[in-house]
Amino acid sequence: xxxxxxxxxxxxxxxxxxxxxxxxxxxxxxxxxxxxxxxxxxxxxxxxxxxxxxxxxxxxxxxxxxxxxxxxxxxxxxxxxxxxxxxxxxxxxxxxxxxxxxxxxxxxxxxxxxxxxxxxxxxxxxxxxxxxxxxxxxxxxxxxxxxxxxxxxxxxxxxxxxxxxxxxxxxxxxxxxxxxxxxxxxxxxxxxxxxxxxxxxxxxxxxxxxxxxxxxxxxxxxxxxxxxxxxxxxxxxxxxxxxxxxxxxxxxxxxxxxxxxxxxxxxxxxxxxxxxxxxxxxxxxxxxxxxxxxxxxxxxxxxxxxxxxxxxxxxxxxxxxxxxxxxxxxxxxxxxxxxxxxxxxxxxxxxxxxxxxx
Amino acid sequence: xxxxxxxxxxxxxxxxxxxxxxxxxxxxxxxxxxxxxxxxxxxxxxxxxxxxxxxxxxxxxxxxxxxxxxxxxxxxxxxxxxxxxxxxxxxxxxxxxxxxxxxxxxxxxxxxxxxxxxxxxxxxxxxxxxxxxxxxxxxxxxxxxxxxxxxxxxxxxxxxxxxxxxxxxxxxxxxxxxxxxxxxxxxxxxxxxxxxxxxxxxxxxxxxxxxxxxxxxxxxxxxxxxxxxxxxxxxxxxxxxxxxxxxxxxxxxxxxxxxxxxxxxxxxxxxxxxxxxxxxxxxxxxxxx
Lengths: 358, 289
Hints:
The complex is a heterodimer of chains A (358) and B (289). Chain A is elongated. Chain A has helices at residues 84-92, 113-118, 135-145, 150-164, 179-191, 209-225, 237-243, 261-267, 282-294, 317-326, 341-350; strands at 47-56, 59-69, 73-77, 99-104, 107-108, 120-123, 197-201, 229-234, 246-251, 254-260, 270-278, 298-301, 306-310, 329-338. Chain A has a six-stranded mixed sheet, sandwiched between helices. Chain A has a four-stranded antiparallel sheet with strand order 2-1-4-5. Chain A has eleven helices and 14 strands. With 358 residues, chain A is α/β, with parallel strands linked by helices. In chain A, α3 packs across α4. Chain B is mainly alpha-helical. Helix content of chain B is 72%, strand content 0%. Chain B has 15 helices and no strands. In chain B, α12 packs parallel to α15 (260-281). The longest helix of chain B has 28 residues, at 172-199. The chains are: A alpha/beta (358), B mainly alpha (289). At the A-B interface, α2, α3, α4 and α6 of A face α1, α7 and α8 of B.
């Protein structure tokens, strides 16, 4: 996958391979209603990364990313500086790849950047607007730049602003908006032209709890409508967990882990979290974990003398207490839990292994 | 869809041709520009000189009309010559007005977009950096053409109409000089103004920088010329380059002793430098290496 590590297969079974021929005019071929042959982006993975490497000067930012993402809403997670925004910018054509490439709906970012951008809506992380314009003119301008005729652009600007909840404030200057309103205006401009793929870069940045909940509700609404795929970049686990079906965790410019949250939820896998005390420190916990593994348990050590265990058929909690008693180890707490995104993320941050097991 | 439905839907309609989209930028920008009363007043003032020139041409061909105004004909008759020098003087007047207009408009063209991260929004669409710059340049080209090229040509054809068809044929060089001189003047004012607007994010500072660009090189070039006993330092002064070029194009004598070819080459170099500066600056995001 990255850095010489074995690459997990991220392809969703049953998906067709990309094969959409490139648009000759630089515009996407797939405007519904204009092509009788159907939707040319249907079936293609949303984003395929093929050894994508990006440098800023001599500094590598993204290092040989390889993945294929196909969910309705994909989360990009990672600590600050992991390369999330750079990945989005590279897909938008803002940064040229130093090596490798990427495809969006089967279109190569090196050769068909314009056609790709015609399919996209982008909500940047930073404050971004056109000064001296009312929100409706701002969104209308953005829609026109995406190719909509002026009358349609204006109509959709009104619609988009009502949709995000800025209908009553749409004639106010964007520069006079509060931070939360500016975030919504950015979402409106990203949606107004009816994109197939929406890039949301830290959409809940600076929002108070009600505004954040409103933003997440909008994202879920867009996702559930099904017309547009969403890539949500965030360092907030809850945002990603609430909206996304797939998650790609980046760490230092590499893919640390990929997880299909939908499958995780469907698998509904429960595990036991134990908090133990022993006079022998880590050795005692290690011995207990080894004994549990000998019983057939999957076992992983956590923080602060915690253990996570998945019990096989026929092994019960009573067996764990017996093992603990034999090793003079106290079980202070025992909880049944499910795998959370936080677990996946923390595991990714601790090591660079791919997600599996706990 | 009615706004009360408030749901997301994909756009299924027709798209505008890709080549025409750079014209969206000036359409929106001009609307903002013409909302400012100061600008509208100045823009109207820019048409006073062409209107006076038109009156001069009219009276030159209707001398009896001057008698009604009790203006002595014998003194004016020889002075009212409609020749290359007449158009050259008109160009000068309009050129200075163009510089003031650029000072009013240009600093607000690029710097607000850079300051508010607007470029990321433009360039995340099927819209290139070149189209963005072309769109912004089109704002100045449109405005400056209306006060230089268009009045110049209208006056030329008005004079030709009053003088007779033969005059146009005999003075085609004037028309060519008006077209080429206006275009060079427009680019010579617009491109540096855009480059400064791209590099100086604060509008008042960009305006001061533009004034400095127009005026400081004149004094500097004069000092260098005196110190080195040469005239080539005029190549550093934008106005002297334009003056030398116009003198060459119209075939009139000028106090600037620079060859028109050298001035044109220096202006071409300036244009390239400005385009390079714009290419460096007009990016979706500034990359810190």
